[in-house]
Amino acid sequence: MVEQAEIRLADGPRLHTRTAGSPDAPITVVLLHGWVLDGRTWHRQVRPLAEIARVVTYDARGHGRSGGIDRGAATLAHLGDDLAEVLHAVAPTGPVVLAGHSLGGMTIMEYAHRHPADFAARVAGLFFLGTTAEGHTHTVYGLPPRVAHLIRMAEMTSAQVLARMGDWRPHRAFALALRPSLRWLLFGHPCDPADVTLTTRAVARASLGSIGGFRPSVGTQARLETLAELPTVPTAVLVGERDRLTPPVCSHSIAKALPGAALTICPAAGHMLMLERPDVVTEALLGVVRAALDGR
C-alpha cells in the first residue's frame, strides 16, 4: 500500500510524497526523479524495494503534484535543501539510501555539498542513474558538437522565457505534440509506448517556470570535488549507452570520483533506465540497499 501526503517546505511550497513499505523497516530508500518528470517514473522499483525497506518518492518543487516555485527558487541549491527537509520530515532517524535519476542525482550531490554533516550521519548507500556532476559539459544530444552548440543556445534563450511563466503548465495537446521528440531524446531501444506515455504526461505536469527556471543552475553544476570528499558507502552508477542527455562519460566521471562505485552501462538504452531496463535497475538498487544493511 502506498500512502500519499504533503510536506510544507520552510519557504512555502508543498511537496507531494508517496511512501511504501513498513514504517519499522531497518532502512529508508528515497527515490528522486529527473527534471520535468515526477516520482511515478520509479513505479517499477517501489514494490520490490518495499519488501526490505521503507520507500519514499516525492515530486520536486514545480513538478508533478507538488506546488509551484518563484523564479528565484528554481535552483539546485533549493533542491538540495528540500531533500534535507524531506529527510527530516519522513525519515528523521535511521540510515537512508539515496537514489537519484538525472536531476535527482544532481539534487543528492547538492544536498551532500550543502549539508555535509547531515549526509555523513544519515546516508548509508548511493545510487546514481543517468546523471552528471558536470552540468551540460558533455551534453551534445547525440549530435555533432556544432549542431549541439546551436541547440543549446536556442534552449537557453527559450529557458529564459519559460522561467518567467511561473506556475503555468503546458497544455496537454502541446505535451502530446512533444511525444515524438521525447521518444527520440529520452529513450533507447527497445522502448515500450506506455513508458513514453507516462513520461509525456509527467512533462505535461511540470510548470513552465520549472522547465525553464532550473536550466541555468543545471547547466553550470560542478560537483566532482564534492563527490570526491564523500564518505565511502555502497554505491552504484548506471547509465544507458545511448543516453543523449547524460552520456556515459558523465557516469565514468562520477564513478572515478567515488572509489568502489560499481559502474554499469546498459547497451542500447537511453536516459529513462528505470523504465527501459527496470530489472537491471531494480537489482542494482536492491544490491546497494542490502550492502548498506550489511554494513550497519
UniProtKB/TrEMBL annotation:
<feature type="domain" description="AB hydrolase-1">
    <location>
        <begin position="29"/>
        <end position="283"/>
    </location>
</feature>
<protein>
    <submittedName>
        <fullName>Alpha/beta fold hydrolase</fullName>
    </submittedName>
</protein>
<dbReference type="Pfam" id="PF12697">
    <property type="entry name" value="Abhydrolase_6"/>
</dbReference>
<dbReference type="GO" id="GO:0016787">
    <property type="term" value="F:hydrolase activity"/>
</dbReference>
<dbReference type="InterPro" id="IPR000073">
    <property type="entry name" value="AB_hydrolase_1"/>
</dbReference>
<dbReference type="InterPro" id="IPR050228">
    <property type="entry name" value="Carboxylesterase_BioH"/>
</dbReference>
<keyword id="KW-0378">Hydrolase</keyword>
<dbReference type="InterPro" id="IPR029058">
    <property type="entry name" value="AB_hydrolase_fold"/>
</dbReference>
